[in-house]
Please model this.
Amino acid sequence: MTSHIRNFCIIAHVDHGKSTLADRLLELTGAISEREMTEQVLDSMDLEREKGVTIKASAVRMYYTARDGQQYEINLIDTPGHVDFGYEVSRALKACEGAVLVVDATQGIEAQTLANLYQALEADLAIIPVINKIDLPSARPDEVAEDVGSLLGIPPESVIRISAKEGVNVDQVLEAIVERVSPPKDADDAPLRALIFDSHYDPYKGVIAYLRVMEGSIRPNDLLRLMSTGVEVKPLEIGIFAPGMKPVGSLQSGEVGYIATGLKTVQDCRVGDTITHATRPAPEPLPGFRHPKPMVFAGIYPVDADQYEDLRDALAKLQLNDASLTFEPETSQALGFGFRAGFLGLFHMEIIQERIEREFNLDVLFTAPSVEYEVVLRDGQTVLIDSPAELPDEGLIAEIREPWMVIEIITPVEYYGPIMDLATKRRGVFKRQEYPAPHRVQLVYEIPLSEIIVDFFDELKSRTRGYASLDYQFLEYRPGRLQKLEILVNGEPVDALAAIVHERDAYHKGQRLINKLKGLIPRQLFDVAIQVATGGRIISRANVKALRKDVLAKCYGGDITRKKKLLEKQKRGKRRLKMIGNVEIPQEAFMAVLRLREE
Model:
């Protein structure tokens, strides 16, 4: 009976209490016993708990007896909480009929609150606004309710006020879900179409696809086909999340569950794909499927060269659970053998780095992140490059195009000036401003991705005392006056320190970088020259002074020529040493590229 099914998700900005609200709902409906209860049940990774952000979506089925005496099957589809995982959020929204919009009573409306709300409205979901953390001394529930009310065009009194931590008024959320979210349509007889909104890899059952059945039904002996890849599978098991995996006899239209496919890689079973019957396929897949495209690239190198194979295994295992991670082998003169990896964003890169270090106990070095450029050659050919070292010779290039993003910044009005200053410094182009709430302004800019991937967010937070929030989306590739900035140490180019920069920033960035490197590269027994080259010419230079050994210590008294002879001998030795000497570049030097703040 689909009339008793409700499918909903919870959308919120990072750390507004989404996972804590999910805990209370599981407790209230008895889906989880008190003995099994831990904080943030659905956030199973240690990293998720530490960072206070959901990284991997999950789903759970609850049974709730409403005030009308009827029992309802309520499916919660949890969504990732960070802007890097925007595509996964959009697929989770497509699997629901309603969304609980959680807003923190102390923080108010933030950028991702709006971005996720607009996505939910586009997907035509019923919105249930909820204000959380009303128990905190700094909570401003009335003011935030006014803002949410004016945003959604509803009276502020109708916004539910809860404390997920204390469990206050959480039952009202369940009642609102039953009343306001429409049941899924009954379409058991139509050809099967099920949306995959997430997947993970299980060593025994292969890829587990999390799905919402839109039309038709699935039984254990059905032969199924994935519509984008054409792969056919016979499910090893079908079941529901309660919240652990629990096998069932069938999944009907409107239900949420999983199938164990037996497939060996997540690439065959992508988020957003449609599953149908191989014998009676649906005429067309569900709309909106696309391949998640890596936006940020970095080199990953083992600190100990012997761990290269271990690093390859670690990346392969992480890729089993994360289809958006891409990697291929690369070599660097400075760092040896490693991999070039692609990530959805900087947060995604940070998560992968921490997982490699924690779960696989490897010491790794990440090079400075870069973006993917489109290089148009003079012969009309277009090549994609994601590493500055791959940039072709300057004489062959007609133009270089870089990715641009649309960013939305929401901030209290008093920080308007510092944000305008920051965005302008980073080559941002102002587009428009809106006032979603009386004391908050939403600024929309177009800005190159390379300008926001390193420390834009940190700078934004420090200029606004943590009050501003940021959301971004890919816009297009645009041609720009870009150049390759090369660092030469002792006359040798260091490929891992190369960068692609705008020509107006080349001199300043180069100057700041060699000043940093000068303090980081250890002194040798000979002078080491650090040079910055761009456009085929050296634009700046600094010297790391040689260590002095006092060769005159043993020369006491006598003629001055004795001293000159010893100094001449030392000079010749240093000259010879400079030719064969090897300059070790410490790990901090590669991190210095990341920290080139506006000084």
